[in-house]
Amino acid sequence: MFEFFGGVFATLAAFFLVGEMGFWLLLGGSFCCVWYSVSRSRGLGALALVVGTGLIVQFVSKLDIAAWAAANWRYALAWSAAYVLIGGIYALFRWQLFCSRKSRELGELESTFRKREGVSGAFSLIQKRDFYAFLSKSRYRTDIEDGQHFDKDVLLDYGVVPTAARNKYAIGRFVWWWPVSALGWFLDDFIRELYELVSRGLSGLMDYMARRVFGDQAALSMTRDELREAEREAEREADAKRSPHTSSK
Protein backbone atom coordinates (compact mmCIF):
# COMPACT_ATOMS: atom_id res chain seq x y z
CA MET A 1 0.00 0.00 0.00
CA PHE A 2 2.73 2.44 1.01
CA GLU A 3 4.76 1.45 -2.03
CA PHE A 4 1.75 2.17 -4.26
CA PHE A 5 1.16 5.67 -2.86
CA GLY A 6 4.90 6.25 -2.91
CA GLY A 7 4.96 5.42 -6.60
CA VAL A 8 2.00 7.73 -7.28
CA PHE A 9 3.71 10.56 -5.40
CA ALA A 10 6.95 9.99 -7.30
CA THR A 11 5.06 10.09 -10.61
CA LEU A 12 3.34 13.35 -9.65
CA ALA A 13 6.64 14.81 -8.48
CA ALA A 14 8.23 13.99 -11.82
CA PHE A 15 5.24 15.44 -13.71
CA PHE A 16 5.15 18.69 -11.69
CA LEU A 17 8.93 19.06 -11.50
CA VAL A 18 10.06 22.67 -11.95
CA GLY A 19 10.48 23.41 -15.65
CA GLU A 20 8.47 20.41 -16.83
CA MET A 21 5.20 20.75 -18.75
CA GLY A 22 3.15 19.72 -15.73
CA PHE A 23 4.64 22.52 -13.66
CA TRP A 24 3.66 25.18 -16.20
CA LEU A 25 0.22 23.63 -16.65
CA LEU A 26 -0.23 23.78 -12.88
CA LEU A 27 0.71 27.46 -12.72
CA GLY A 28 -1.36 28.34 -15.79
CA GLY A 29 -4.42 26.46 -14.58
CA SER A 30 -4.11 27.92 -11.11
CA PHE A 31 -3.82 31.45 -12.52
CA CYS A 32 -6.95 30.98 -14.65
CA CYS A 33 -8.90 29.61 -11.67
CA VAL A 34 -7.75 32.50 -9.46
CA TRP A 35 -8.72 34.96 -12.19
CA TYR A 36 -12.18 33.42 -12.42
CA SER A 37 -12.62 33.47 -8.63
CA VAL A 38 -11.56 37.12 -8.33
CA SER A 39 -13.82 38.15 -11.22
CA ARG A 40 -16.73 36.46 -9.40
CA SER A 41 -15.85 38.23 -6.13
CA ARG A 42 -14.73 35.02 -4.44
CA GLY A 43 -11.62 36.15 -2.66
CA LEU A 44 -11.52 33.23 -0.22
CA GLY A 45 -11.71 30.76 -3.09
CA ALA A 46 -8.82 32.51 -4.84
CA LEU A 47 -6.79 32.42 -1.61
CA ALA A 48 -7.45 28.70 -1.21
CA LEU A 49 -6.26 28.12 -4.79
CA VAL A 50 -3.05 30.08 -4.21
CA VAL A 51 -2.34 28.23 -0.96
CA GLY A 52 -3.06 24.85 -2.59
CA THR A 53 -0.81 25.64 -5.54
CA GLY A 54 1.92 26.79 -3.17
CA LEU A 55 1.74 23.54 -1.22
CA ILE A 56 1.99 21.50 -4.42
CA VAL A 57 4.99 23.51 -5.56
CA GLN A 58 6.57 23.26 -2.10
CA PHE A 59 6.16 19.53 -1.51
CA VAL A 60 5.66 17.97 -4.95
CA SER A 61 7.62 20.17 -7.36
CA LYS A 62 10.53 20.32 -4.90
CA LEU A 63 10.74 24.12 -5.05
CA ASP A 64 11.41 24.99 -1.42
CA ILE A 65 9.75 28.40 -1.20
CA ALA A 66 9.73 28.41 2.61
CA ALA A 67 13.49 27.76 2.83
CA TRP A 68 14.25 30.52 0.32
CA ALA A 69 12.02 33.00 2.20
CA ALA A 70 13.69 32.13 5.50
CA ALA A 71 17.18 32.49 4.05
CA ASN A 72 16.34 35.70 2.19
CA TRP A 73 13.78 37.25 4.52
CA ARG A 74 14.85 40.81 3.69
CA TYR A 75 14.15 40.24 0.00
CA ALA A 76 10.89 38.49 0.86
CA LEU A 77 9.75 41.45 2.97
CA ALA A 78 10.84 43.92 0.27
CA TRP A 79 8.94 42.01 -2.43
CA SER A 80 5.86 41.77 -0.20
CA ALA A 81 5.94 45.51 0.51
CA ALA A 82 6.39 46.27 -3.19
CA TYR A 83 3.47 43.99 -4.04
CA VAL A 84 1.15 45.81 -1.61
CA LEU A 85 2.39 49.22 -2.76
CA ILE A 86 1.71 48.39 -6.41
CA GLY A 87 -1.71 47.08 -5.39
CA GLY A 88 -2.48 50.35 -3.58
CA ILE A 89 -1.47 52.43 -6.59
CA TYR A 90 -3.52 50.18 -8.88
CA ALA A 91 -6.53 50.50 -6.56
CA LEU A 92 -6.31 54.31 -6.69
CA PHE A 93 -6.02 54.15 -10.46
CA ARG A 94 -9.09 51.90 -10.81
CA TRP A 95 -11.04 54.06 -8.35
CA GLN A 96 -10.30 57.19 -10.41
CA LEU A 97 -11.46 55.46 -13.59
CA PHE A 98 -14.63 54.20 -11.92
CA CYS A 99 -15.53 57.63 -10.47
CA SER A 100 -14.94 59.31 -13.83
CA ARG A 101 -17.18 56.82 -15.60
CA LYS A 102 -19.96 57.17 -13.02
CA SER A 103 -19.71 60.98 -13.17
CA ARG A 104 -20.25 60.89 -16.94
CA GLU A 105 -23.16 58.49 -16.53
CA LEU A 106 -24.77 60.65 -13.83
CA GLY A 107 -24.34 63.77 -15.98
CA GLU A 108 -26.04 62.09 -18.94
CA LEU A 109 -28.95 60.93 -16.76
CA GLU A 110 -29.32 64.40 -15.22
CA SER A 111 -29.33 66.01 -18.66
CA THR A 112 -32.00 63.56 -19.85
CA PHE A 113 -34.14 64.21 -16.77
CA ARG A 114 -33.87 68.00 -17.09
CA LYS A 115 -34.87 67.92 -20.75
CA ARG A 116 -37.76 65.57 -20.10
CA GLU A 117 -39.13 67.54 -17.15
CA GLY A 118 -38.14 71.02 -18.37
CA VAL A 119 -36.09 71.69 -15.23
CA SER A 120 -33.44 74.41 -15.09
CA GLY A 121 -31.39 75.58 -12.14
CA ALA A 122 -31.12 73.84 -8.80
CA PHE A 123 -33.53 71.01 -8.00
CA SER A 124 -36.28 71.58 -5.47
CA LEU A 125 -36.86 68.82 -2.93
CA ILE A 126 -39.75 67.45 -4.98
CA GLN A 127 -37.68 67.55 -8.18
CA LYS A 128 -34.79 65.86 -6.37
CA ARG A 129 -37.18 63.15 -5.20
CA ASP A 130 -38.38 62.64 -8.77
CA PHE A 131 -34.77 62.60 -9.98
CA TYR A 132 -33.88 59.88 -7.46
CA ALA A 133 -36.86 57.85 -8.69
CA PHE A 134 -35.58 58.35 -12.25
CA LEU A 135 -32.10 57.18 -11.22
CA SER A 136 -33.54 54.08 -9.58
CA LYS A 137 -35.61 53.30 -12.66
CA SER A 138 -32.48 53.75 -14.80
CA ARG A 139 -30.64 51.37 -12.40
CA TYR A 140 -27.90 53.87 -11.65
CA ARG A 141 -25.59 52.32 -9.08
CA THR A 142 -22.51 53.39 -7.12
CA ASP A 143 -20.96 49.97 -6.52
CA ILE A 144 -18.08 48.72 -8.64
CA GLU A 145 -19.32 45.16 -8.86
CA ASP A 146 -22.27 45.15 -11.24
CA GLY A 147 -22.93 41.54 -10.31
CA GLN A 148 -24.32 42.59 -6.93
CA HIS A 149 -28.05 42.64 -6.39
CA PHE A 150 -29.45 46.05 -7.33
CA ASP A 151 -30.89 47.89 -4.36
CA LYS A 152 -32.62 51.20 -5.02
CA ASP A 153 -32.31 52.21 -1.35
CA VAL A 154 -28.52 52.34 -1.72
CA LEU A 155 -28.88 55.77 -3.37
CA LEU A 156 -30.60 57.06 -0.24
CA ASP A 157 -28.10 55.40 2.08
CA TYR A 158 -24.89 56.38 0.26
CA GLY A 159 -25.89 59.11 -2.21
CA VAL A 160 -25.14 59.38 -5.92
CA VAL A 161 -21.36 59.75 -5.40
CA PRO A 162 -19.44 56.45 -4.99
CA THR A 163 -17.95 55.89 -1.55
CA ALA A 164 -15.06 53.70 -0.45
CA ALA A 165 -17.22 52.25 2.34
CA ARG A 166 -19.71 50.96 -0.22
CA ASN A 167 -16.92 49.37 -2.29
CA LYS A 168 -14.45 48.27 0.39
CA TYR A 169 -14.43 44.61 -0.65
CA ALA A 170 -13.84 45.44 -4.31
CA ILE A 171 -11.06 47.87 -3.36
CA GLY A 172 -9.50 45.18 -1.19
CA ARG A 173 -9.45 42.82 -4.15
CA PHE A 174 -7.78 45.54 -6.24
CA VAL A 175 -5.00 45.73 -3.65
CA TRP A 176 -4.46 42.03 -2.92
CA TRP A 177 -5.27 40.53 -6.32
CA TRP A 178 -3.98 43.26 -8.61
CA PRO A 179 -2.13 40.98 -11.09
CA VAL A 180 -5.27 39.05 -12.13
CA SER A 181 -7.48 42.13 -11.72
CA ALA A 182 -5.21 44.20 -13.96
CA LEU A 183 -5.22 41.49 -16.63
CA GLY A 184 -9.01 41.29 -16.52
CA TRP A 185 -9.28 45.08 -16.69
CA PHE A 186 -6.95 45.22 -19.69
CA LEU A 187 -8.84 42.54 -21.60
CA ASP A 188 -12.27 43.99 -20.81
CA ASP A 189 -12.55 47.49 -19.34
CA PHE A 190 -9.46 49.00 -20.96
CA ILE A 191 -10.49 47.94 -24.46
CA ARG A 192 -14.06 49.20 -23.83
CA GLU A 193 -12.80 52.51 -22.39
CA LEU A 194 -10.42 52.92 -25.33
CA TYR A 195 -13.28 52.23 -27.76
CA GLU A 196 -15.52 54.79 -26.04
CA LEU A 197 -12.72 57.37 -25.97
CA VAL A 198 -12.02 56.94 -29.69
CA SER A 199 -15.76 56.98 -30.46
CA ARG A 200 -16.31 60.21 -28.50
CA GLY A 201 -13.30 61.83 -30.19
CA LEU A 202 -14.44 60.83 -33.68
CA SER A 203 -18.04 61.86 -32.95
CA GLY A 204 -16.93 65.32 -31.82
CA LEU A 205 -14.70 65.72 -34.88
CA MET A 206 -17.46 64.59 -37.26
CA ASP A 207 -20.00 66.92 -35.61
CA TYR A 208 -17.55 69.82 -36.03
CA MET A 209 -17.06 68.91 -39.71
CA ALA A 210 -20.83 68.79 -40.25
CA ARG A 211 -21.32 72.20 -38.62
CA ARG A 212 -18.62 73.70 -40.84
CA VAL A 213 -20.19 72.24 -43.99
CA PHE A 214 -23.74 73.39 -43.17
CA GLY A 215 -22.69 76.73 -41.70
CA ASP A 216 -25.70 79.01 -41.08
CA GLN A 217 -28.07 76.23 -42.10
CA ALA A 218 -27.45 74.66 -38.69
CA ALA A 219 -29.64 77.41 -37.22
CA LEU A 220 -32.62 75.79 -38.96
CA SER A 221 -32.48 72.92 -36.48
CA MET A 222 -35.03 72.94 -33.68
CA THR A 223 -34.61 71.39 -30.26
CA ARG A 224 -37.40 69.94 -28.16
CA ASP A 225 -37.22 72.92 -25.80
CA GLU A 226 -37.57 75.31 -28.74
CA LEU A 227 -40.51 73.29 -30.04
CA ARG A 228 -42.30 73.49 -26.68
CA GLU A 229 -41.61 77.23 -26.48
CA ALA A 230 -42.91 77.69 -30.04
CA GLU A 231 -46.11 75.81 -29.17
CA ARG A 232 -46.65 77.98 -26.09
CA GLU A 233 -46.04 81.12 -28.13
CA ALA A 234 -48.51 79.94 -30.77
CA GLU A 235 -51.11 79.35 -28.06
CA ARG A 236 -50.56 82.86 -26.69
CA GLU A 237 -50.96 84.37 -30.16
CA ALA A 238 -54.14 82.35 -30.71
CA ASP A 239 -55.52 83.53 -27.38
CA ALA A 240 -54.64 87.13 -28.26
CA LYS A 241 -56.50 86.85 -31.56
CA ARG A 242 -59.57 85.39 -29.88
CA SER A 243 -59.64 87.88 -27.02
CA PRO A 244 -61.04 90.91 -29.03
CA HIS A 245 -63.94 88.82 -30.32
CA THR A 246 -64.64 87.54 -26.85
CA SER A 247 -64.68 91.05 -25.34
CA SER A 248 -67.00 92.46 -28.11
CA LYS A 249 -69.55 89.82 -27.33
What does this entry look like structurally?
By secondary structure, this protein is mostly helical. About 75% of the residues lie in helices and about 0% in strands. The chain has 10 helices and no strands. Helix 5 packs antiparallel against helix 8 (about 170-175).
Brief sketch in words of this structure:
The protein is mostly helical and about 250 residues long. Helix content is about 75%, strand content about 0%. The longest helix has about 45 residues, at about 75-115.
Secondary structure blueprint with pairings:
Blueprint (H helix, E strand, L loop, with lengths): L1 H14 L5 H19 L3 H17 L5 H7 L1 H45 L7 H13 L16 H5 L9 H9 L1 H37 L9 H25 L1
Helix pairs in contact: 2-3, 4-5, 5-8
List the main descriptive attributes of the protein structure presented here:
249 residues, mainly alpha, 0% strand, disordered N terminus
